[in-house]
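anyone seen this seq b4? input:
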Amino acid sequence: MGINKLKLYQLTRQSAFIWISSGVLAALLLGIGTAVSLLNRNRLDLFQKVVSAPADAREVPVEVSAPGAEGYTEDFVLRAVLEGLESSAPFYARLMDLSFMLYCMAPAAPVELPQLDSLTPAEQAVAQRLAACYSGPDKEAAVQALEALAEGEAPRHANFALAIVLMDRRETVRAVEALNREIELYNPRHAREQLVDVYLEAGRYDLLHALAKDPDYAAFFTPKVLQDIALAQLDWPMILKTLLPASYQNTRLGILLLALFSGLVWALLLMRFSGALSAAWKWLLPALLLGALSAHAALLSLFFQKNQLGFGFGLTVYQQLLYCLLIGLREEGLKLLFFVPLIPFLKNKNDLLILTAAGLVGLGFALEENISYFDASAGLSAMARFATANFLHIALTAMCGLSLARAVYHRGEDIQHAAATFILAVAIHGFYDAFLMVPALMSFAWLSYTVFVLMGYQYFGWLKHLRDEWQEPFSITASFTYGVILVTGFSYILLAWEAGPGLALQAVVGQAVSTAIILVMFYREIPEAID
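predicted toks r here
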């Protein structure tokens, strides 16, 4: 070991060095995220503060105050509304933002708009009538006033604004009528697109099939829309055709890069765990691709379970628990099935390499799954999933894969051990999800951490048994620490761009606190002595 490697070995095993270097890296990423967020001039800061409330206000009837409405002063409401209306977005988009924001805030006092230079007199009238439908005590009268504005030779956007209000009030038939009037008068693209969405939500597939033949509507029949129609009608050829395109529809580049980077960090850690980089690298790409394909197969299996068999989450605790166990059975079974093609090529390889290759298949599944989760949370869930769900998929698939490979190589001698390992993996996965998903068990959500930690101990126990020495020049503890910080930092940058640095920092810190116990488990189990 040369002098440089010796210094690196010593430094990366000193807790002081890891703490200081981690702090510098975190501060650098924090600065980059804050600076980048200032470049987004179209971000509506007050709008983000409103819609970042934890509960979904649209699940509440329009007459009921939405969760989080307390504390919104009249001044704050008006400033948020004005900021939204004066943005550079198209006017119809500003109307949709306005309705969503006021729905969330449910202000008790009527919102009175001053004359805005950014709006024409007709746009001002539409915005004022729309705002009145979500604020103040007499919303019915406000809806009637908007209906009066939308009659006859109505100004542009009046019927579209009315349709927004009616959709929030679950009056689908009247919302369709308003959209059709807007289309008849002005034929705007956004109204035609909204009409497709309303028909889809209402299950009017006969009307959707008619619209699909109209060239003016062809662009709105995206793979996701076609998939939703196919699922409702159990059109399996179309479901298969749209499976991949619908999965990546509207995926933002930043989210895709974050998911890929998070996967790359875990791949590097698995390489470090294996201790034999040159032997493990050749399995990286095929294992990740097989894992990604297993994620799509799992989605297809879910469609079959819910749409063909009609078995969803259910209302009873029994049904919900069974649903979670089926998640474990489906995902663990398919990951293992897609690992099978690698088994013939891994024959005569050491068990540590087989464990790593199987873990990479699990990582491929997690990477593919991360794209949708990251997109739904604007990247916020990156840190939590990095430490929990990603490792869950890696560890369970690694242990099941090695057990199955041993059974195959030994011609069935270890089949009982492979079966027991698989059953345990399904139970761990199912109960981990159940404690987070089943309402009756949510008060015991801390048990999901218990299940996870026990699974982590088992995986690291296998790893320590298969690997004798852990003396790399650059410590795995430091690698893991920097990986966590980089993934968290990049998620902060994305979230700061969307919502501003204040909200982004608050959200990321919350994620860090919630996953602290899991991170402690990793530091305890990585077999290195840190001074």
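Residues 53-70 have pLDDT under 50 and may be disordered. The radius of gyration is 27 Å. kinda curious what u guys think
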